[in-house]
Amino acid sequence: MQVLKFGGSSVATPDAIRSVASILQAKKTNEPLVVVVSALGKITDQLLQCGSLAATGNVTYKELIQSITQRHLDMARELVPVAIQSSILSFIIQQFNELEDICNSVYHLKELSDRTIARILSFGEQLSSHIVSTYLNTHGITNTWLDATKHIVTDSNYLKAVVNFPATNKSIQSVIPKQSDGLWIVPGFIASDEEGRITILGRGGSDYTAAIFAAALQASVLEIWTDVSGMMTADPREVKHAKVISRISYQEAMELSHFGAKVIYPPTLQPAMQLNIPVWIKNTFAPEDHGTIIESNIVHTKGTICGISSIANISLISLEGSGMIGIPGYSKLLFETLASCEINVILITQASSEHSICVGIEASIATKAKKALDKAFAYEINRGMVNPIVVEQDLSIIALVGDNMKNHAGTSGKMFGALGRNGINVRAISQGSSERNISAVIASADVKKAINVLHEEFFETTYKQVNVFIIGTGNVGSRLLAQIKQQQAYLQKNANIQLRVIGIANSRRMLFEEHGIDLNQLDRLDSAEPMDLQAFINRIQTMNLRNSVFVDVTASNSVANTYADLFLKSISVVACNKIACSSAYNNYQHLKGMATDRHTSFLFETNVGAGLPVIGTLNDLLRSGDAINEIHAVLSGTLNFVFNNYDGTRSFATVVKQAQDEGYTEPDPRLDLGGTDVMRKIMILAREAGARLEMEQIVNHSFMPASCMEGSVENFYSEMERQEAHFKKLYTEATANGKKLKFVANYKNGEAAVGLQQIDPQHDFYHLYGKDNIVLFYTNRYKDQPMVIKGAGAGAEVTASGVFADIIRAASV
Ligand SMILES: Nc1ncnc2c1ncn2[C@@H]1O[C@H](COP(=O)(O)OP(=O)(O)O)[C@@H](O)[C@H]1O
Ligand SMILES: N[C@@H](CC(=O)OP(=O)(O)O)C(=O)O
């Protein structure tokens, strides 16, 4: 004896029903088969809607019934040969006439009882099972339609009836002989009470019908045929890389389904488990796929967790009060009150201080629960022993499930670490003593992100998805995008990182693509929506994607001002923009503190030395216990380029212009020439080394005549031309001394200064060419000979690569 159940998706279309037929055809053995079918996909929802529309006086229920009727008639016409269609067509019409009569009564009475709802919903399975049975009979698969309402006996809890197993088993056994080769088609979901009134077994209850038959007939297997290839590690509609679990224990499957894995209705497993009947989940549309076998004694070879699931629409009810401590009876009253209102508790937590108890319940009954509890605890509330009941809305439960959890320490640490890093606030936590499940209550808006984060953490050793938002498509930004495009496949293959650019903006336009922008089609940005910085930030926050990294490749003040909002949502920031780190010390410190508090990254390596590993190295030294005593550095790629190329043959202004044209300067070259940029860099280094330094405290021995620094950038160039003699003098004096000019930054004992110096040939700074930078760290460990970092310190390509490296670093946390 085998029992097979085909869900709504498996009978939703004529083609689906044809697939059911071929599965049954392939099955035909000498064993008897019981086939349970659900209503055609979505029909139960629509029937429910008919009832609610009628009850609220909305006459459109008639149109809805019309369209449901049409769908069934079309289905029968397509499946059953014309010559023998009439009896099934008239059955369908007669059923819908009856449904319409019931809905008309509901419409007139404006009353919709649970009993009537059960009756209305029962039409779905009645009809589908008749259509399937007729189709099979007319296509050589002889079968008998069996009325489940005559054999499954329940109490009168119409919408979630409790089965009377002794009576049901007896009735089923009397009608289906164990030894036969028959095939029975049974409508799922529906039953009847002792008085013969229709009841239903709860939404999704066709699975349960199948389990009831399987248990009564001691079937060798219960097969649940659906539209996915088994029970998966997470809901495949939420998690793209969810995997099929090939074997799972009854208990694990029960936990997963109890916590929302819709593929199987939770009560289904109980009767199967009692008789050790394996439950096999199979895909009607890919019958060759293995599917999932649910049975006892599963030994998992890989991982501690077998799946993740979630339940939406949860409210958290909190009972709190100092009067509760040490006094027995509060929880008894709480749960008794909820039970007396037939409120099912999904999750419970209690603070060890006994000062508060939280329960998670279905949101739709939260108001009823609060009312009942406020009444039950009125005495305690009036005396201030207990606070008025608090209800929190818009919550969901996520659950990690796995039998192996109990043998492994660290699962919850890993779970909450991953949630925390992604800014997902946990409102309540519960872990059953069986240690088969850890569940957490979180905001519903965070569920998709949370499930994906956890799935990645526990199942996707293959790769981690990183979602990048970039503002700035100038010199550095465009090189960065080109580098990302070039490296995407490499990163996925070699570093297990799937780097997706989700948002790009420049000062004019912004473009978003939730599944990743195709970097071959960046011209789409030109016709994208107008840039609005606040809207860009809001969008990042509302998209709420895991492992989000915001990349600032601008020199904009307003962009730098958004970092705090991003950290609040645990979004990492990678900044090429120096404004934030060189702003007031308190702001720099505040931003760094926020990033640390939110377990997120704030990385700005390219603020000093472009792609050179300067800040990273400094931090490595500090983290390993060293201390930075002095820093001597040439930090301006622009000034180096200028002094390395200026020899008096071309004007100083011409050489500066060349540096700007080749992309080495800041957008405003006066920031380089006047020394401000170097001041910012040495200040950032000093701050990273632990100094509390402000810009005003840095001494600047500027070599620029004051007149060059006034007015516009054009004035700046023309004034430099006029001051050519001054620049020439600086050059000839240095050359006469056998020295070279370098713009040097020094930091020692909490003080910093910048200025032009003549460097003699023995000095580390002498042999600096092109746009090179050099940094010397004198530390406790590098006392006499400094640690030296040297190389190109400007240029779009190297700066972009530094930003890119920071993105990867942020992604690897
Ligand atoms: N962990 C999970 N594994 C497999 N499917 C899941 C899981 N969680 C949710 N689902 C969803 O359950 C659906 C199957 O359940 P359901 O719609 O009730 O099917 P049927 O129509 O066959 O009764 C799948 O299409 C899938 O989207
Ligand atoms: N048709 C019912 C019963 C059922 O189990 O359906 P499905 O197998 O499509 O989940 C419902 O939608 O609740």
TrEMBL record:
<keyword id="KW-0486">Methionine biosynthesis</keyword>
<dbReference type="GO" id="GO:0009090">
    <property type="term" value="P:homoserine biosynthetic process"/>
</dbReference>
<comment type="pathway">
    <text>Amino-acid biosynthesis; L-lysine biosynthesis via DAP pathway; (S)-tetrahydrodipicolinate from L-aspartate: step 1/4.</text>
</comment>
<comment type="function">
    <text>Bifunctional aspartate kinase and homoserine dehydrogenase that catalyzes the first and the third steps toward the synthesis of lysine, methionine and threonine from aspartate.</text>
</comment>
<dbReference type="InterPro" id="IPR049638">
    <property type="entry name" value="AK-HD"/>
</dbReference>
<dbReference type="Pfam" id="PF00696">
    <property type="entry name" value="AA_kinase"/>
</dbReference>
<dbReference type="GO" id="GO:0046872">
    <property type="term" value="F:metal ion binding"/>
</dbReference>
<keyword id="KW-0479">Metal-binding</keyword>
<keyword id="KW-0511">Multifunctional enzyme</keyword>
<dbReference type="InterPro" id="IPR011147">
    <property type="entry name" value="Bifunc_Aspkin/hSer_DH"/>
</dbReference>
<dbReference type="GO" id="GO:0009089">
    <property type="term" value="P:lysine biosynthetic process via diaminopimelate"/>
</dbReference>
<dbReference type="Pfam" id="PF03447">
    <property type="entry name" value="NAD_binding_3"/>
</dbReference>
<protein>
    <submittedName>
        <fullName>Aspartate kinase</fullName>
    </submittedName>
</protein>
<dbReference type="InterPro" id="IPR042199">
    <property type="entry name" value="AsparK_Bifunc_asparK/hSer_DH"/>
</dbReference>
<keyword id="KW-0791">Threonine biosynthesis</keyword>
<keyword id="KW-0915">Sodium</keyword>
<dbReference type="InterPro" id="IPR054352">
    <property type="entry name" value="ACT_Aspartokinase"/>
</dbReference>
<keyword id="KW-0418">Kinase</keyword>
<dbReference type="InterPro" id="IPR036291">
    <property type="entry name" value="NAD(P)-bd_dom_sf"/>
</dbReference>
<dbReference type="GO" id="GO:0050661">
    <property type="term" value="F:NADP binding"/>
</dbReference>
<keyword id="KW-0067">ATP-binding</keyword>
<dbReference type="InterPro" id="IPR001048">
    <property type="entry name" value="Asp/Glu/Uridylate_kinase"/>
</dbReference>
<keyword id="KW-0560">Oxidoreductase</keyword>
<dbReference type="InterPro" id="IPR001341">
    <property type="entry name" value="Asp_kinase"/>
</dbReference>
<dbReference type="GO" id="GO:0004072">
    <property type="term" value="F:aspartate kinase activity"/>
</dbReference>
<keyword id="KW-0520">NAD</keyword>
<dbReference type="Pfam" id="PF00742">
    <property type="entry name" value="Homoserine_dh"/>
</dbReference>
<keyword id="KW-0028">Amino-acid biosynthesis</keyword>
<dbReference type="InterPro" id="IPR018042">
    <property type="entry name" value="Aspartate_kinase_CS"/>
</dbReference>
<dbReference type="InterPro" id="IPR005106">
    <property type="entry name" value="Asp/hSer_DH_NAD-bd"/>
</dbReference>
<dbReference type="GO" id="GO:0009088">
    <property type="term" value="P:threonine biosynthetic process"/>
</dbReference>
<dbReference type="InterPro" id="IPR019811">
    <property type="entry name" value="HDH_CS"/>
</dbReference>
<feature type="domain" description="ACT">
    <location>
        <begin position="400"/>
        <end position="473"/>
    </location>
</feature>
<keyword id="KW-0457">Lysine biosynthesis</keyword>
<comment type="subunit">
    <text>Homotetramer.</text>
</comment>
<comment type="similarity">
    <text>In the C-terminal section; belongs to the homoserine dehydrogenase family.</text>
</comment>
<comment type="pathway">
    <text>Amino-acid biosynthesis; L-methionine biosynthesis via de novo pathway; L-homoserine from L-aspartate: step 3/3.</text>
</comment>
<keyword id="KW-0547">Nucleotide-binding</keyword>
<comment type="similarity">
    <text>In the N-terminal section; belongs to the aspartokinase family.</text>
</comment>
<dbReference type="GO" id="GO:0009086">
    <property type="term" value="P:methionine biosynthetic process"/>
</dbReference>
<dbReference type="GO" id="GO:0005524">
    <property type="term" value="F:ATP binding"/>
</dbReference>
<keyword id="KW-0808">Transferase</keyword>
